[in-house]
Amino acid sequence: MNDPGPVLITDGDRLGADAFAHQVAERAAAFMACGLRPGQVVMVPDSPAFDLTLTILALGRIGAGVFPYRSGLDPAERLALADLAGVEWLWNPDSASLMPASATTQVTDVPPESSAALLIKTSGSSGHPQIVMHDYAGLRASASRVNARLGVTAESTWLCCLRLSHIGGAAILYRAALAGARLRLHDGFDAPTVLRELEAYGVTHVSLVPPMLARLLDLGGRAPPSLRVVLVGGQALSRPLAKRALAAGWPIQLTYGMTETGSQIATSGALAAEDGGLDTSLVGTLLPDVDIEAPDCDAPTARLRIRGPMLMLGYANPERQPGQGLDEGGWFEPADLGCLTGEGRLRILGRADDICVIGGTNVSLTRIAHALQEASGVSEVQIVAGSDPVWGHRLVAVYAGASDDTELANWCRVHLSGPECPRAFIRLKRLPLLDSGKYDRARIAALVRDQKRFGEN
């Protein structure tokens, strides 16, 4: 993005803007000496986070792109992703070596109109892996609007505990670089370490997904006085978890967005316990210049359509041509269902692919999970829909908490309709998470499939 870059604080050491800018310039020069040119793309592991940050900003100086991937990814899968996105180069931080992605890689200049700045692998709205492409203009558009909404300045300190191979983590880097803010980097999320550093280093901003927030609250920590914004997104925040956080003084702001939109496109103000009964489905107002097609909240629910300057170029292809995944007007349609209130606030009501039919009734898995989180003795829950030859689907609740399955079944019969009631319950100590911090829905579904007798752990 051709910005001076953040003041980094990593592993307890502070690296000032001048010293860091010198390292960025040195790496950019080394890359160009190897033959890397503007418009080309480099695949880089996301750990160590400091090295990836240095590489991203060096590539920004050149006008080249980066494709961060999860460290430890199977080499065959990595090469398949490189082929899908037409990647020219691979960077190995252990040996500090830049090498062509394959023996057949053509190291040639790429036209600016085909240039991708950031590529991120995502499951996408279709449910199968996609690689999202963003250009520098879109990244800057997102960072500038988010910084203005959240008050990110050169005096801010953002603790980044989200992996940089996910848009939630990568976006923090671009925001910090644009503002010249301090950036404290973590290689993944460790709740005790995050809580300790929030308290010790004057952190003002942090981004979390709800399971991360729950882990921090389980440690009993109150929010430090320096903390101004706790941005919570990635998946729905339950009302009980929001209440716990607010009671402990955490300045929660909800956000909505996805990889295809370059992270958030809507953000709430600071939540308060008395705000409308704490309706956590209201994710806030749209960022400037975001267009959205959504029904009024009094009308039937429909899928959203989104357009704006931070929207992706499209899904990757070997030629990295833009447009795949967007319609002719530049609109993107995720699987999310939502509506707009009369005050212009966006309400998210789940996903179209979370709706199943049971006995002729449309049932929302998201709504059932939200309801169960209100039950006493439930700290985490996900709903899995299996097939049923008579009713169409059979619901299983996978949860963590003190309640046993009999107590939970009785609660469901009182608070849910018949088709919404899970027919089986699996209690775990903790629900499994992805490296993004979100619930691992595929693994949870596999646990249900593999369970010989429901209720066993």
UniProtKB/TrEMBL annotation:
The AMP-dependent synthetase/ligase domain, residue ranges: 10-315
Gene3D superfamilies assigned: 3.30.300.30, N-terminal domain of ligase-like (3.40.50.12780)
Record Pfam families: AMP-binding, AMP-binding_C
AMP-binding enzyme C-terminal domain ranges (all copies): 370-438
GO MF term set: acid-thiol ligase activity
PANTHER family according to UniProt: LONG-CHAIN-FATTY-ACID--COA LIGASE, NONRIBOSOMAL PEPTIDE SYNTHASE PES1 (EUROFUNG)-RELATED
Protein name: AMP-binding protein
Annotated organism of origin: Allochromatium palmeri
